[in-house]
Design a protein that fits this description.
Helix 8 packs antiparallel against helix 9. Strand 15, helix 21 (about 495-505) and strand 16 (about 505-510) form a beta-alpha-beta unit. This protein folds into five domains: about 5-85, DNA polymerase beta, N-terminal domain-like (DNA polymerase, domain 1, Orthogonal Bundle), CATH 1.10.150; about 90-155, DNA polymerase, domain 1 (Orthogonal Bundle), CATH 1.10.150.20; about 155-260, Beta Polymerase, domain 2; about 265-335, Beta Polymerase, domain 3, CATH 3.30.210; about 345-585, TIM Barrel (Alpha-Beta Barrel), CATH 3.20.20.140. It has 24 helices and 18 strands. It is α/β, with parallel strands linked by helices. Helices cover about 45% and strands about 15% of the residues. Strands 11-12-13-14-15-16 form a six-stranded parallel sheet, with helices on one face. It has a five-stranded mixed sheet with strand order 2-4-7-6-5, with helices on both faces. The structure holds one DNA strand. InterPro entries: DNA-dir_DNA_pol_X, DNA_pol_lamdba_lyase_dom_sf, DNA_Pol_thumb_sf, DNA_pol_X_beta-like, HHH_MUS81, Hlx-hairpin-Hlx_DNA-bd_motif, NT_sf, PHP_dom. This is DNA polymerase beta. Its cofactor is Mg(2+).
DNA sequence: GCCGTTTTCGGCCCGACTGTTTTCAGTCG
């Protein structure tokens, strides 16, 4: 049993507890805190339990410690099983409806005997929900809308979709004379791989009156492409766009802007320890400011931006991407935060498909595009022979492709170097799709899985480990195979993959395609900690796909990578030397 | 359920908006 399974069980306890009628919100929070504590552990959970070292970890008291010990030693948690047995699954489903929380769910399910979403819809249409005490017509209407929304858009959105909407609205608001500062916040600013909604923070002059605020809010809710106005006030309004994504605007005075921007950037998990820290320094934080002292003698600690905000708390500036409660506050306190990699640090690209397999552009077109982007090397990695659907290259065609690359390298000399690579399939048994004597002739080899996704976790892990042990493999491509919002990755032991890659000197890519963003940023940091260099690879199938590097850089930053941790920030000579060293170590 | 250089009891991060209420509960982020 690993710590993630333990954390998941504790989170499930928290979710089920809040659906109990007499639930204490603080008990719920205790389990949520414990889940976070566990998932942030560096030590092996089984060893901690065996050695009795759970005690003393802040956030784990006697009860939760006992429950974790039961779970880890027996593989079961009787408390969780009792909660599951006592909680109708419909209550969990109803939690996904906007505007329905535990209290109302309990009222609905227990008093109206609702057992399915269809039951709830019928009860609304028959006005039985509105008749419940504390409910009314409008609440009932909101529930119906929530049901419809869940059916249509019960999912999250990929980063690029949300980014485009967010930037468009920011531009529109920035053009208004009432607006002083405006910024996209929320999970979008933190560059999460998917987002549920878009948060925008804007400021008006400190002396702006109610009429000015209303003008801004009218402008916001009156934008083209607004499908529905969810709520509208003078400090907060919420709309649903034609794409189905929800967008919130928070309006503050310009003096409040840095605090509000910080507040709405989140993550909530980052704020909780930060506020605790503030309290211990005799300060409090809310979205309108950082205050010293206690009510009613609060004194604003002036900050003109977030840098000063963190400084007032005795911390180095924490980049938005890092605000996930993953140890960033402790690192900021010690001044050990990394300088994060930026797009302009990239010197070349290593994972690009051409018309030789399933790409849309010729190598020459791709090379020109790389020159325009100021890159100095391009690794061409078409698919290998067994990938029929993607027009994988036979050994004969490889020979012809290499001749073309040689000609182009002569032509582009002094501007760009084209490297001979391959995205070689890892076959079912972990062997590679070209024989060793062919693999030996590439400048580098990306090995990826594109088939047999349903092997058992053990088989899938062994398959990957065998590929990593192959002395010709340079980079592991999209290591989990996930497609965001479509399918989970193949089940394998990613920690074992990282460990093996570190041992064999194999690089693991961040696949920058916004549907993949694989390796996940949570593991990027672990790979970095094991000394693995990470290439940021566009997996481009066209010139336009080269721009996906932008998303890969976001994930690299979330994974705490500095330029030195990224393979393709290296100048050509250094990259070639690294690839040759790999070859020589065989 | 956890925690303690004020506390072993009484706190626990904080505020906006909505709707059903006549002062506040529920939900959300």
């Amino acid at each position: 049993m690993d710590k993630n399974q333990v954390a998941q069980a504790l989170e499930e306890v928290a979710t089920l507890l809040q659906l109990k009628k007499d639930a204490s919100p603080f008990e719920v929070r205790a389990y949520e805190n414990a889940a976070r504590t566990i998932s942030a552990l560096d030590d092996d959970i089984e060893r901690l339990v065996k050695e009795g070292r759970l005690k003393g970890i802040p956030g784990l008291g006697p009860t939760i410690t006992r429950r974790i010990e039961e779970l880890v030693t027996s593989g079961r948690l009787s408390f969780l099983e009792e909660l599951r047995a006592a909680t109708p699954s419909i209550k969990l489903e109803l939690l996904r409806i906007q505007g329905l929380g535990p209290r109302r769910i309990n009222a609905i399910v227990d008093q109206l005997h609702i057992a399915s979403l269809e039951d709830l819809e019928r009860a609304c249409k028959e006005d039985r929900v509105a008749a419940l005490p504390g409910f009314g017509k409008k609440t009932q209407e909101k529930i119906l809308q929530g049901l419809a929304f869940l059916a249509e858009h019960g999912h999250r959105y990929l980063y690029p979709v949300a980014e485009a909407e967010g930037l468009r609205m920011r531009e529109a608001l920035a053009s208004r004379p009432e607006i002083v500062r405006v910024q996209v916040a929320g999970s979008l600013r933190r560059r999460r791989e998917t987002v549920k909604d878009i948060d925008i923070v804007a400021s008006v002059a400190d002396d702006a009156d109610s009429a000015i605020r209303q003008r801004v809010m009218n402008f916001f809710t009156g934008q083209p492409g607004v499908r529905q106005i969810v709520s509208k006030g003078e400090t907060r309004s919420s709309i649903i766009l034609a794409s189905g994504i929800q967008m919130d605007l928070r309006l503050v005075t310009d003096r409040q802007f840095p605090y509000a921007l910080h507040h709405f950037t989140g993550a909530k998990e980052h704020h909780i320890p930060l506020r605790r820290r503030a309290l211990s320094m005799n300060m409090t934080i809310n979205e309108y400011g950082l205050f010293r002292g206690k009510e009613p003698d609060l004194e604003l600690v002036p900050c003109k931006d977030e840098v000063e905000f963190y400084a007032a708390l005795g911390l180095a500036y924490i980049e938005p991407e890092l605000r996930e409660d993953m140890g960033e506050i402790e690192a900021a306190e010690r001044g050990e935060l990394p300088t994060l990699v930026e797009e302009r640090d990239l010197r070349g690209v290593l994972h690009v498909h051409s018309v030789w397999s399933d790409g849309k552009n010729t190598i020459r077109e791709l090379a020109e595009a790389c020159c325009e982007r100021g890159l100095s090397y391009l690794g061409i990695t078409d698919h290998s022979q067994s990938v029929g659907y993607a027009n994988g290259l036979s050994v004969e065609n490889l020979q012809r492709q290499w001749e073309e690359i040689d000609r182009l390298n002569a032509e582009f000399a002094g501007r760009l170097v084209i490297l001979k690579g391959t995205e070689c399939d890892i076959l079912k048994d972990g062997s590679l799709d070209y024989p060793d004597e062919v693999l030996a002739r590439f400048d580098f080899v990306i090995a990826s899985i594109h088939s047999h996704f349903t092997l058992s976790p053990q088989e899938q892990t062994e398959r990957m480990l065998r590929a990593i042990a192959n002395p010709y493999v340079t980079i592991i491509g999209h290591p989990t195979g996930r497609l965001l919002l479509e399918r989970p990755g193949y089940t394998l032991d990613i920690e074992a993959v990282i460990e093996a890659a570190a041992r064999h000197g194999v690089f693991i890519e961040i696949n920058a395609s916004p549907q993949r963003l694989d390796l996940d940023w949570r593991y990027v940091r672990k790979a970095r900690d094991r000394g693995i260099l990470i290439p940021i690879d566009p997996d481009a199938h066209s010139i336009a796909g080269l721009a996906d590097m932008h998303y890969g850089v976001g994930i690299a930053r979330k994974g705490w990578l500095s330029a030195a941790d990224v393979l393709n920030t290296r100048p050509l000579e250094e990259l070639v030397a690294l690839l040759q060293r790999r070859k020589a170590s065989r």
